[in-house]
Amino acid sequence: MIEPHAPAPPGTASPRPRTGPGPARLPVRPATGRFLVLTGVFVCAACGLVYELELVALASYLMGDSVTQASVVLSVMVFAMGLGSLLAKRLRCRAAAGFGAVEALLALVGGCSAMALYAVFAWTGDWGGAWAGGSTYLLVAFSLAIGLLIGAEVPLLMELIQRVRRQDPGGAVADLFAADYVGALAGGLAFPFLLLPLLGQLSATLITGTVNAVAGGALVLGVFRHDLTRRDRRLLVVANLLVLALLATAAALVDDFERSARHAMYGRDVRVALHTGVQDVVLTGGADGRGLGLYLDGRLRVSGGDGGRCHAALVRPAMNGPHARVLVLGGGDGLALREVLRHRGVHRVDVVELDARLVRLARTDPALSALNGHAYRDPRVRVVAADAFGWLRRAPLRAYDVVVSDLPDPRDTSSTKLYSQEFYGLAREVLADGGRLAVHAGSLTARPHAFWTVDATVRAAGLRTVPYRVDGSRAARGQGHGQGYEQGLDWGYVLASRARPHLGGGGGASGEGVRAAGRTGPADLPPSTLVHPRYAD
């Protein structure tokens, strides 16, 4: 508490008045006011972390390479938080009004960030990977703006908590940061386990913005209203009502917005769109003579227009030899499984696919199940819903004649371990004597570094390899940037075994148009490992 100054004794100079505001006139007891401020810190910290995680998650989905996206978002945001703290020093003399304005703006910017980023991605055609598109610039801009506003909260909240009851600065900092860190923990756990699965990314950020606006506005207008001028109170009420109205309008239109964005990305014949908990799955076409397209996390994975040539080229060379027991890693769409089952002598096929809902879609969707030849109805097929890496660690040794690796692009960080030396070492252990491993390695023409890194990694695991390729069909050209369809140029594969494998003939059982790629890549490429992934190019 700041004591009033006593009159100066005669003959002495009057003491200089103390600087800084006195204690706030609170409508509640100081202890209650302190609790309300720390509660506001908790809620605002949780909202701030949700905005941060949302930017990382959405950018990883839209652009791939989650390590790069997370690094950019976090580094820009932390830098901006420091800058925001410095800039907020000028607002400390009007901490209540400044904090109210910061929270209203943060709620609007953070709450709308996901929709804005998704809209730019959908309507500009920025399919990314390269750091030059509109989505990238907008990602950095939102990271910077949200970081500035989050950083401005700390000095303003420190001033407000001291206005409630003066205490030593160390104690005030400890209380403030404790509430801030616990709030960040709550937001960090709520996003993946509650908000994302129940609401999705767009609705989750809109709801978070609403909570942020209500918490900030209630703290300032309820607890510190006597620190505000009448004009400030009116402006904050109008600003918060406007922000809440905008967020509510966006929430009401989010389903229509998402459908329109989906149509902009995939065309107007989207039949199925769902988030499985593992990935986003979109099915287009497949009815009224329209070609079927299966997109996983925005990338074309299956095109009915290629006539199955991509998966035929993956599977058929590996089936030259004993093939009674076959293991398919990934391939939940059923296309690789269809090619396996076309060969006589197959007694059992184990499919290890993490996304059980994708397998269910491949079983039940009329167009997709017709494309995969209703492969999942075959009694020889056994499906295991598991991560391929973890499953291989427990798999029986030398149990399979053929292993088919039909997995997502290694540029996605979550898939990089499935293209590592350790992974191929585990796959080698489950191969029987004379067994073959077939790996989908991406486009040799569009991404030669990644292709030859796959080959080098398989060889580093103790297998001998034959890299080969198939030209992309005209129907597949230009249909996105998924594994096997990049720029519609070609499809590249690696066939491996303990002894040197053989492709066989150029057609027939080996697949139409299959030809060896030769050793045209760099001879000294290092393998990709769990601790040193090497597929970014």
Automatic annotation (TrEMBL):
One of its GO terms (biological process) is spermidine biosynthetic process. InterPro entries: MFS_trans_sf, PABS, PABS_CS, SAM-dependent_MTases_sf, Spermi_synthase. Keywords: Cell membrane, Membrane, Polyamine biosynthesis, Spermidine biosynthesis, Transferase, Transmembrane, Transmembrane helix. The keyword Transferase applies. Pathway: Amine and polyamine biosynthesis; spermidine biosynthesis; spermidine from putrescine: step 1/1. Its EC number is 2.5.1.16. PROSITE patterns: PABS_1 (PS01330), PABS_2 (PS51006). Residues 1-12 have a biased composition (Pro residues). Belongs to the spermidine/spermine synthase family. Catalyzes the irreversible transfer of a propylamine group from the amino donor S-adenosylmethioninamine (decarboxy-AdoMet) to putrescine (1,4-diaminobutane) to yield spermidine. This is Polyamine aminopropyltransferase. It comes from Streptomyces apricus. The gene is speE.
